[in-house]
Design goal:
The protein is an alpha+beta fold. It has 3 domains: 6-308, Immunoglobulin-like (Sandwich); 309-318 and 382-471; 324-377, no CATH class. The protein has 13 helices and 32 strands. Strands 16, 17, 18, 21, 22, 23, 24, 25, 26, 27, 31 and 32 form a 12-stranded mixed β-sheet that branches. Strands 10-11-9-12-13-15-14 form a 7-stranded mixed β-sheet. Strands 8-7-4-5-19-20 form a 6-stranded mixed β-sheet, with no helix packed on it. Strand 14 (268-272) and strand 15 form a beta hairpin. Helix 9 (324-347) runs antiparallel to helix 10. The two termini are 44 Å apart.
Length: 612
């Protein structure tokens, strides 16, 4: 964390820009700085992001100053939604010693335009509260068509201007048309202000690093590498390539020829997980490359939460609705036996005439309990879900990056609490709020970012997208005996429907194409040109383009599924890469909640170590 206060840093950056004659008000104004408070507490905030955001988690830097001669306890509440029915609330209690000044950085969720256009902070202490808007984005319609862009450059941010207000086409690439356009909204930041948490970049589509400016440190580069692997677009411009190579190598990233995308006017573009790394010429952005080609950088990558998984969650049939058939049967049973039971009670010897005043309420109460229990137990008390995930497994770097979407239903009488570590982030689908009357998405920052409320509500289907980064110890291994090729499964889970590409770009599969390869098992491979069908429930037609470039056919099988067919594996998978399905992904975090997967598609794309 930097030592000067937010307001002091802002003043220094403004003075530096004026001294060099390079003040760029528009780019600089994208970041938000605020100072407010009362006689007890002064709060300074900084949100070093553009005023346009994709769904994700945004970093807020705080400087809190206790202006009293006594201990001060305050509760910070970050909220989105305002007067809207849908709200997101993140709370953090803080205790300050007399005169103490403390710096903090927190991550606050932003789930899209449905949550309004501003982030507010309220501090409550000693019976009073003070509040202020600390970050305001573009209007909802403008934000939906924006491409958030962060430029790491020198103070003054003049380089950020050349990335401002560019119209780009996404989905552009080999064999793909332009599916939609966006306009870039850029902000400049200096390297020392970069976060060391990949989630702090999750609302961005692009991060560009000026190689002629002070460069990011190791922790920031590690975070950017993870963000890129989960779908971000990382750009280097303005300096010698060796500086970019050194930065990437320090974070364990090596740009390999087999991962280079087709050569075109954008320069050198490499695939890194679900994202892209682009190297411009030393002349800089404007001289080396026109703005109209910017969309080619993104290709099929639009950030850590692919639009497919954010806006097209899988269906989970048969939950969230009352069991009408069972309830109807229970009511008919009540009507049939209520009379006979009453008659039998009245026929008893010495039966009191008013006995029915006791039996009727008791029978009614008993059947009400039965109906309630039938309603509760018919859908279970645990968590059921439909889930689909794709994992990029880099065996050389021993990392696994997973993007997933799940629709969950909790049969519990109490809302579930989810806890994800620093390597995972979750955002709810817009459709989750439609199922709730007044949804409140609650984040307890003091409990490590515990997710409560509408993230997984009681007895209502809730959909969310998950992006996660994890360490991976093993993967798939090749063995060759004479002219025969074998695959050995070193993972802890069985693999199904394996397809593999060797050093020469030839495609292979097991002799039995649908054989299940258990953990530690070895199978013989044969060369193939067969299709590989991936079935995703309720996926949109553009799903394969956004998720994995090269899936070139979409077929509706008439059962509520789309079948995504790979006609040619080599253009999709690089050399020494493989693809397989697993019944349960070992890389998808469960948030500390036991889940029963009723419908699941888990796909692993593995990249083996490069060999001659």
């Amino acid at each position: 964390m930097p030592t000067p206060s937010c307001s002091t840093r802002r003043l220094l950056l403004l003075l530096a820009a004026l001294c060099f004659g390079a003040l760029a008000p528009r780019a600089q104004a994208q970041s938000s700085y605020e100072t407010f408070g009362d006689e007890s507490l002064e709060i300074s905030t900084e949100v070093p992001l553009p005023r346009a955001m994709r769904p994700g988690w945004l970093p807020v830097r705080l400087r809190l100053t206790n202006q009293l001669d006594a201990t001060l306890s305050t509760t910070l509440e970050f909220s989105l939604g305002g007067a809207w029915d849908v709200r997101s609330e993140s709370t953090l209690p803080v205790t300050l010693e007399p005169g103490e000044e403390r710096e903090l950085e927190v991550l606050v969720p932003f789930f899209g335009e449905q949550f309004g256009e501003s982030v507010r902070l309220r501090a409550s202490h000693r019976g009073v509260s003070v509040s202020e808007t600390i970050h305001r984005i573009e209007s909802g319609s403008a934000n939906r068509s924006a491409a958030p862009f962060l430029v790491v450059t020198s103070a003054g941010f003049q380089q950020a201007q050349q990335f401002q207000a560019l119209t780009i086409g996404l989905g552009a690439g080999s064999g793909q048309g332009v599916s939609f356009t966006r306009s870039t909204v850029a902000a400049g930041v200096i390297a020392e202000d970069l976060s060391s948490d990949w989630r702090a970049y999750s609302t961005l589509m692009f991060v560009a690093i000026d190689l002629n400016a002070p460069l990011p440190g190791r922790a920031a580069m590690d975070a950017l590498a993870k963000w890129t692997e989960l779908g971000g677009n990382l750009i280097f411009f303005g300096g010698p390539r060796s500086r970019a190579d050194d930065l990437l190598a320090a974070s364990g990233v090596r740009l390999q020829d087999r991962l280079q995308l087709e050569a075109n006017q954008v320069g050198q573009v490499y695939r890194h997980g679900f994202g892209r790394i682009t190297l411009y010429s030393e002349l800089g952005f404007a001289e080396s490359f026109g703005a109209k080609h910017l969309g080619l950088l993104a290709g099929s990558s639009d950030g850590p939460f692919p639009s497919l998984f954010y806006r097209a969650p899988p269906a989970l049939p048969g939950v969230g609705l009352p069991p009408l058939n069972l309830l109807t049967a229970a009511l008919i049973l009540v009507a049939l036996i209520m009379g006979p039971i009453q008659f039998a009670q009245m026929k008893k010897r010495n039966a009191k005439p008013w006995r029915f005043l006791q039996t009727t309420p008791l029978l009614g109460l008993g059947f009400a309990v039965v109906i309630l229990m039938v309603s509760l137990l018919s859908q279970g008390l645990g968590v059921r879900e439909s889930v689909q995930s794709v994992t990029w497994l880099d065996q050389e770097r021993r990392t696994a990056s997973t993007v997933a979407t799940r629709t969950s239903f909790s049969g519990s009488l109490f809302a579930q609490t989810q806890r994800y570590g620093a390597e995972a982030a979750v955002i709810p689908s817009p459709y989750t709020a439609d199922n709730l009357r007044e949804p409140r998405f609650l984040v307890d920052l003091a409990a490590g970012g515990a997710l409560r409320g509408a993230f997984l509500p009681t007895r209502v289907p809730a959909s969310s997208a998950v992006s996660a980064h994890a360490a991976a110890r093993s993967g798939l291994r090749l063995e060759k005996e004479g002219d025969t090729l074998y695959a050995v499964n070193d993972l802890d889970v069985p693999l199904q429907r394996l397809r593999l590409v060797d050093n020469e770009g030839r495609s292979f599969q097991p002799q039995d194409a649908d054989v299940e390869i258990g953990a530690g098992e070895r199978v013989q491979l044969i060369e193939t040109e067969a299709l590989f069908d991936v079935r995703l429930r309720h996926a949109t037609a553009h799903a394969p383009i956004e998720l994995i470039s090269g899936l070139d056919e979409v077929k509706d099988d008439g059962l509520g599924f789309n079948s995504l067919a790979l006609r040619h594996l080599p253009p999709v998978l690089p050399r020494r890469a493989w693809m397989a399905e697993v019944k349960r992904s070992p890389f998808l975090p469960d948030g500390g909640v036991s889940r029963k997967e009723e419908h699941a598609v888990h796909l692993i794309l593995g990249l083996m170590e490069e060999r001659p």
